[in-house]
């Protein structure tokens, strides 16, 4: 399940990036700042997948709490053959893959966050090194 959510989040991010780039071009054409477009696209990219995940989890819990409808037939389980062990191990493998994907996603996110923090530090350091000038009566 986590792999599908990751693909959804990535596809949404790409779609919002393309849309924001198009809207920014349109804003530039009419000489309107496009910064708010990128802020909204970034916020939506971060919030939308998390909100969709939370809503899906709540729906799953609600559906699990609903009683199953009565069947018009009965099943005799005394003569059933035990399921092979591969079915149980498949769930374990899926869980391991999901856990691995979550770890990779978290590590990648932390690396990107560290890169952003470093870029901000460099920008602050460079800004402090700049001298103030007045150009055309504007500081």
Mean pLDDT: 83
- Report the total helices: 3
Distance between the termini: 54 Å
Rg calc: 26 Å
> What is the tally of beta strands?
0
Form type: elongated
What sequence of helices (H) and strands (E) makes up the elements? HHH
Model regions low in confidence, pLDDT < 50 over at least 5 residues:
none
Profile the largest sheet: none
Helicity range: over 70%
What percent of residues are in strands?
under 5%
Structural class: mainly alpha
Quick take:
With 139 residues, the chain is an all-alpha fold. The protein has helices spanning 2-29, 35-65, 85-129.
Set down the secondary structure blueprint.
Blueprint: H1 2-29, H2 35-65, H3 85-129
Helix pairs in contact: 1-2
How would you describe this structure in keywords?
single chain, 139 residues, mainly alpha, 0% strand, elongated
Can you offer a commentary on this structure?
This protein has 3 helices and no strands. It has helices at residues 2-29, 35-65, 85-129. The longest helix has 45 residues, at 85-129. The model has no long low-confidence stretch (mean pLDDT 83). It is elongated and about 90 Å long. The protein is an all-alpha fold and 139 residues long. Helix 1 packs antiparallel against helix 2.
